[in-house]
């Protein structure tokens, strides 16, 4: 009879994601992961592989979780409101959480992407999907008449991507409402 896992793999992965998100890849030890995931090393390695393999899996999981929030915004709000909701959510997260960790993809971009091709690929995929979300919402807003036809969907989506990542970094270093709200207003104005 094959060995049966005595833990929830998805819950353990979620916990690993949060440890990497808070501490970064290099600062996270295997002991940190084992403790947070509530499993022993004998379960971690056969299920997730080594630390790097677990990190890549956690990074992909983060991307899925983050993009699911975008889908929820797209269903709940009009196209321009769905874009602004992304920015407002970042501000709320930063101001409501004293341990705000920014974005795992953005943090990883700075820490590992320049040195690790696999990590860079996951990060680039997440950034492309985020840009596509903004572009799709702009095009939907243009189709509904809520966003002017003069707004270039591709260029504006790229500007919004840059503003969003800048907002996340700024929110970690200077979590002040007037500073962060100014970026949200600029993002909204780019849709007018």
Molecular structure report:
By secondary structure, this protein is mostly helical. It has one domain: Orthogonal Bundle (Tetracycline Repressor, domain 2). The chain is 76% helix and 0% strand. The protein has nine helices and no strands. It has helices at residues 9-23, 30-37, 41-48, 51-76, 79-96, 104-111, 117-144, 153-173, 177-189. The longest helix has 28 residues, at 117-144. The model has no long low-confidence stretch (mean pLDDT 92).
Q: What are the key terms here?
A:
192 residues; mainly alpha; 9 helices; elongated
Q: Number of helical runs?
A: 9
The general outline is elongated
Please name the CATH topology: Tetracycline Repressor, domain 2
Work out the radius of gyration: 19 Å
Class by helix and strand content? mainly alpha
* Unreliable segments of 5+ consecutive residues: none
Gap from first CA to last CA: 63 Å
Q: For this structure, what is the CATH class?
A: Mainly Alpha
Order of helices and strands: HHHHHHHHH
Please indicate the percent range of residues in DSSP E strands (runs of 2 or more). Answer: under 5%
Largest sheet: none
Can you tell me the number of structural domains? 1
Number of strands: 0
Q: Please estimate the helix content.
A: over 70%
Just name the CATH architecture. Answer: Orthogonal Bundle
CATH superfamily: Tetracycline Repressor, domain 2
Mean pLDDT: 92
Topology diagram in text:
Layout (H helix, E strand, L loop, with lengths): L8 H15 L6 H8 L3 H8 L2 H26 L2 H18 L7 H8 L5 H28 L8 H21 L3 H13 L3
Helix pairs in contact: 1-2, 1-4, 4-5, 4-7, 5-7, 5-8, 5-9, 6-7, 7-8, 8-9
């Amino acid at each position: 009879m094959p060995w049966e896992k005595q833990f929830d793999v998805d819950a353990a992965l979620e916990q690993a994601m949060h440890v990497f998100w808070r501490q970064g890849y290099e600062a996270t030890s295997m002991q940190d992961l084992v403790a947070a995931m509530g499993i022993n090393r004998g379960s971690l390695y056969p299920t997730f592989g080594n630390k790097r393999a677990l990190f890549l899996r956690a990074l992909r999981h983060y991307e899925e979780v983050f993009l699911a929030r975008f889908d929820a915004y797209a269903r709940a709000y009009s196209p321009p409101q769905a874009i602004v909701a992304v920015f407002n959510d970042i501000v709320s997260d930063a101001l409501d959480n004293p341990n705000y960790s920014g974005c795992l993809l953005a943090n990883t971009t700075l820490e590992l992407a320049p040195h690790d091709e696999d990590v860079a690929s996951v990060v680039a995929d997440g950034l492309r999907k985020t840009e596509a979300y903004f572009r799709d919402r702009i095009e939907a807003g243009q189709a509904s008449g809520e966003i002017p036809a003069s707004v270039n969907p591709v260029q504006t989506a790229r500007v919004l991507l840059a503003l969003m990542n800048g907002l996340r970094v700024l929110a970690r270093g200077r979590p002040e409402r007037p500073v962060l709200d100014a970026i949200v207003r600029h993002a909204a104005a780019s849709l007018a």
